[in-house]
Design a protein that fits this description.
Helix content: 25-40%
Number of helices: 24
Shape: globular
CATH architecture of the largest domain: 2-Layer Sandwich
Number of strands: 24
CATH topology of the largest domain: D-amino Acid Aminotransferase, Chain A, domain 1
Number of domains: 5
Largest sheet: 5 strands, mixed
Strand order of the largest sheet: 2-11-10-3-9
CATH class of the largest domain: Alpha Beta
CATH superfamily of the largest domain: DNA ligase/mRNA capping enzyme
Structural class: alpha+beta
Radius of gyration: 28 Å
Strand content: 15-25%
Length: 681
């Protein structure tokens, strides 16, 4: 006969309650099949709370009562993602998906059997949650993809996320990745409260989720019902998964909610049909989606396809057609870009509702585009949100003209600094630019904002509004001025108290050591974005060497060529560039690039090209590539005469890489041998 609650000791009853609550959470969030009412569930939880209050020694870290047990945290610590959280290339139509399928077949072979997994693309916030020995250890946002914010205190408030894995034999390390989101109903509920408090309502569920995750007090987070869907893993140890569908089943078995609308498709035609189906059905979901993610199911095939510098070649995000609206162009404002370019910004009357947000302003590209479209003030225009994020004017309906529309007149002087506006032409287009971009307040504010971005100098507290404040107040007239700011100066600015001022100063101080690659990306050198800046830094290692480099030397950097080299040379040859470099060095900004970390055992793989096939016990696909690079080797996705050896893991079926290695006489090693080579075994 089963033990009754009264016959159990406090420790036994607490354990029983925890198990029951965990079971009912699983039924509710994972199976979507609750068997007790909310009131009955609350009664079980309240009994456990009272029992632990009477017997504090019974409280365990993974008890359901500890989800909202912590005190507010002072700020967000940084977490390095051992496996980067990469973005996925977007596609917007059937042709893009067919090209993706064709590119896959080029690598895998036209006869390859390729299954795709189509998953709803939840419009939320990407999250990585690490479990050690089955217990939740740390949760971090995607951030830059390599470094995120530690939001463990908020993630623990989400009842759908288990505090410990639902298995008696958990992997030593298991990092689950997924999307934190909120339902449309929860957005409506919270916005009713915002309006009652005379506060600004949230625009959409994504903004609300992101804002909630950034709350420092877990008790405040718990008042908002966040949810979670799991769909991938990061670092894992002690577990072997062969395909996406198996991974999703494992996630579900471990206690994570998995989206029920995921479909295994055997052809690209099935994928396209499924995307079309959800383009219509999405409006009936209780949460927002902005497309689907298409992934190759088989992990061995993924390994053969590999990655570019930023995205996997085995996945594609299908974004729904942008929502469009029609409204009137009431007036045009001119904003200044980071290079001094004048960007025409349309103001609408009335504002137009798109993808759950009210759009009052939208970009109109540049002067050449406006002239080509012959857009006039008073016109009826078509507005869309590209990828449901960025609003843009895309067309004009000339048939609606009444004869009162006015041609857009471009200013002859910069609206920010008053300097003359000049026409700048390229081979294919033209625009109007401020003739004094280095000193122009509008351009400087844009450059400051870009300089402080997370993936660049990562200055906490320096967003668009603060950048504008600093420039308009005259406190910052160049990027080096950031590093001369004092607390007394910041306290003279509106909405700046002690805490906000200190946060900004701390962020600025921390940014001094970001390294050359991120510094170059932040300096707004024309045609040198984040990736090119990193390549430039790795090629020269020192800012002084870049300043002294010839155009020919710069052009030899991977991806540069003569044109990009010309822009780099022009930047550092200018008086402003020379002054900038001198000031940055004087202020103690790090202008060198740290060499890639060399293991204590040296670089035993130096000069070796290594191909991997099969599933390894100690590394996932990202981890083995990073390890090979870390020990001086070069990972490759295909076997050739240049391959030094093939590392073979567990193979579920015949491997074309293994066959090719045998044919070419390439040495073959197992994981144990590899680990001995690098001194890890």
């Amino acid at each position: 006969m089963a033990n009754t609650a009264s016959s159990l000791s406090p420790a036994e009853r607490a354990a029983q309650l925890r198990k029951q609550i965990e079971h009912h959470n699983y039924l509710y969030y994972v199976e979507a099949a609750p068997v007790i009412s909310d009131r009955e569930f609350d009664r079980l939880l309240q009994e456990l709370i009272e029992l632990e209050r009477q017997h504090p020694e019974l409280v365990t870290p993974d008890s359901p009562t500890q989800r909202v047990g912590g005190q507010p945290i002072p700020g967000f610590a940084k977490v390095v993602h051992q496996v980067p959280m990469l973005s996925i290339d977007n596609s917007y139509d059937e042709a893009d998906l067919r090209k993706f399928d064709a590119d896959v077949k080029k690598v895998l072979g036209p006869q390859a059997v390729v299954d795709y997994v189509a998953e709803l693309k939840i419009d939320g916030v990407s999250m990585s949650i690490r479990y050690e020995q089955g217990h939740l250890k740390v949760a971090a946002t995607r951030g830059s993809g390599e470094i995120g914010d530690d939001v463990t205190h908020t993630i623990k408030t989400i009842a759908a996320i288990p505090l410990k894995l639902h298995t008696d034999n958990p992997p030593p390390v298991f990092e689950v990745r997924g999307e934190v989101y909120m339902t449309k109903h929860e957005l409506e509920r919270i916005n009713r409260e915002q309006i009652q408090k005379k506060l600004e309502p949230y625009k959409n569920t994504r903004n609300l989720t992101a804002g909630t995750l950034k709350l420092l007090d877990p008790k405040e987070c718990a008042k908002r019902k966040m949810a979670f869907f799991a769909y991938a893993t990061g670092v894992t140890e002690g577990i072997t998964l062969r395909n996406q569908m198996e991974l999703l089943e494992t996630l579900k078995a471990f206690g994570f909610p998995v989206n029920p609308h995921t479909k295994l498709c055997h052809t690209i035609d099935e994928v396209i049909a499924y995307c079309a189906q959800w383009n219509i059905q999405r409006r009936h979901l209780p949460y927002d989606i902005d497309g689907l993610v298409i992934k190759i199911n088989d992990f061995a095939q993924r390994d053969r396809l590999g990655f570019t510098a930023k995205v996997p070649k085995w996945a594609k995000a299908y974004k729904f057609e942008p929502e469009q609206g029609i409204t009137k162009l009431a007036e045009v404002e001119f904003h200044i870009g980071k290079f001094g370019e004048l960007t025409p910004v349309a103001k609408f009357d009335p504002p137009v509702e798109l993808a759950g947000t009210t759009v009052t302003y939208a970009s109109m590209h540049n002067a050449a585009w406006v002239a080509d479209k012959d857009i006039r003030i008073g016109d009826t225009v078509v507005v869309e949100k590209k990828g449901e994020i960025i609003p843009q004017v895309v067309d004009v309906i000339t048939s609606e003209r009444k004869g009162t529309e006015k041609v857009i007149v471009w200013p002859t002087n910069c609206p920010e600094c008053g300097a003359p506006v000049v026409k700048k032409e390229t081979a294919t287009s033209y625009n109007f630019v401020c003739s004094n971009p280095e000193s122009c307040a509008g351009g400087l504010a844009k450059r400051l904002e870009g300089f402080a971005r997370r993936e660049r100098m990562d200055i906490d507290g320096l967003g668009r509004e603060v950048a504008i404040q600093l420039v308009e107040s005259g406190l910052v007239q160049s990027i080096p001025d950031l590093y001369r700011l004092t607390k007394q100066q910041l306290l003279t600015l509106e909405k700046f108290g002690e805490r906000k001022a200190q946060k900004l100063l701390d962020g600025i101080a921390a940014s001094k050591n970001r390294g050359l690659g991120r510094l170059l990306a932040g300096l707004a050198i024309y045609k040198v974005g984040d990736e090119m800046a990193q390549r430039l830094a790795e090629a020269f290692q020192d800012l002084d060497k870049i300043v002294a480099a010839t155009p020919e030397e710069l052009a030899r950097v991977e991806g540069f060529g003569p044109e990009r080299a010309k822009y780099v040379r022009a930047f550092f040859d200018s008086d402003a560039g020379k002054k900038l470099v001198a000031e940055l060095k004087q202020l103690g900004i790090k202008t060198t690039q740290d060499p890639k970390t060399t293991p204590t055992g040296g670089q035993p793989l130096a000069g070796k090209t290594i191909v991997v096939t099969g599933t390894l016990q100690h590394y996932d696909r990202h981890g083995i590539e990073a390890t090979i690079k870390n020990y001086g080797g070069k990972p490759s996705s295909s076997v050739s005469k240049k391959t030094d050896f093939l590392l073979v893991g567990e193979l579920p079926k015949a491997s074309s890489k293994l066959e090719e290695a045998h044919k070419l006489g390439i040495p073959i090693i197992d994981e144990t041998t590899f680990r001995r080579m690098i001194g890890e075994d």
